[in-house]
Design brief:
With 321 residues, the chain is α/β, with parallel strands linked by helices. It has two domains: 151 residues, Rossmann fold; 166 residues, L-2-Hydroxyisocaproate Dehydrogenase, Chain A, domain 2. Helices cover 42% and strands 19% of the residues. Strands 3-2-1-4-5-6 form a six-stranded parallel sheet, sandwiched between helices. Strand 5, helix 5 and strand 6 form a beta-alpha-beta unit. The two termini are 37 Å apart. The mean pLDDT is 94.
């Protein structure tokens, strides 16, 4: 039985994610799950309705549910952790203020993971934004856990980029492979159209529109979340939950497929600063063990953009650390 934890359990992303996990979409149809859900004290009571719904679904794999506000208790024995909960940016709040406020949350959760989680097995995916730097904060306060077991989610950006390429190429999303994201989960992220493949051929060979790739395509991916917020009046939830599920499955199940995830950049083959959480193209070699895919080519355009994203992450680190 796997012990799975979701924080921010009362939010929209968690609501979409919890039922996917409990149904077997995460680990398959044979792996039993014990689900623990963390919320702030004043919101725990509202989670009881979610618990009732989970129970009423009669998911055969769901062996138990625990809800609470004490991270040390909720993270007990945790093997798979989705850190969804974070403080949203309020009107007039500077990014530095947001980083500092969320820093408090992820310091506490990093310490609790270090105390209570299954330190040899746990895989942690940080979803709450700004996720790269929140991930850095959490892993910095969990010194007994291998830092490479912490990841920040850029899979939603990868999924968005995959869709945009498929539409432009007038093909199916399943025809797109090796679509990855470099850098920060922010407006400086770099969707990699040069190494992505469409039916086995480089995307920038299939789509011979350099201007579109370097402007409209990248901007569409970078601004997709803002567009969802404008049209829907709420942030991405169902798509973020699906991306979280996709990301965690990629981290748990070995595969030759490339995917995006942000990790601490030590010993990376691309010369990126080694003390930031930066999104790379990765491959899962065994459960919880990733390797950065080497020898991918950067165009001059990509190189400039990637260094801008690196600079932003270094600045964020300096503001909170």
């Amino acid at each position: 039985m796997k012990r799975v934890v979701v924080t921010g359990g009362g939010g929209q992303i968690a609501y979409s994610l919890l039922f996917k996990i409990a149904s077997g979409e995460l680990l398959g149809s044979k792996e039993a799950i014990f689900l623990s859900i963390l919320e702030i004290p004043q919101a725990v009571s509202s989670l009881q309705g979610v618990v009732l719904e989970l129970q009423d679904c009669c998911f055969p794999l769901l062996q138990g549910i625990r809800v609470g506000s004490n991270p040390e208790e909720i993270f007990e024995g945790a093997e798979i952790v989705f850190l969804v909960g974070s403080k949203p940016r309020s009107p007039g709040m500077e990014r530095k203020e947001l980083l500092q406020e969320n820093g408090k949350i992820f310091i506490e959760q990093g310490k609790a993971l270090n105390i209570s989680a299954n330190r040899k097995e746990v895989v942690v995916l940080v979803i709450g934004n700004p996720c790269n730097t929140n991930c850095l904060i959490a892993l910095s306060h969990a010194p007994d856990i291998d830092p490479f077991r912490f990841h920040a989610m850029t899979r939603l950006d990868q999924n968005r980029a995959t869709y945009q390429l498929a539409v432009k190429a007038k093909t199916k999303v399943s025809d797109i492979s090796q679509m990855t994201i470099w850098g920060n989960h922010s407006s400086t992220q770099v969707p990699d159209f040069h190494n992505a493949l469409i039916r086995g051929t480089r995307a920038d060979v299939v789509i011979q529109d350099k201007n579109w790739l370097e402007t409209d395509f990248i901007e569409a991916v970078q601004q997709r979340g803002a567009r969802v917020l404008k049209e829907r009046g709420k942030s991405s939830a169902a798509s973020a939950a699906q991306a979280a599920l996709d990301a965690m499955r990629a981290l748990l199940f070995p595969s030759e497929n490339l995917f995006s995830s942000a990790i601490l950049a030590k010993d990376n083959p691309y010369g990126i600063s080694e003390d930031i959480v930066f999104s790379f193209p990765l491959r899962c070699v065994r459960r919880g063990k990733m390797e950065i895919v080497p020898n991918l080519e950067w165009t001059d355009f990509m190189k400039k953009k990637i260094r801008e994203s690196e600079k932003e992450l270094i600045q964020e680190k300096n503001e909170v650390m």
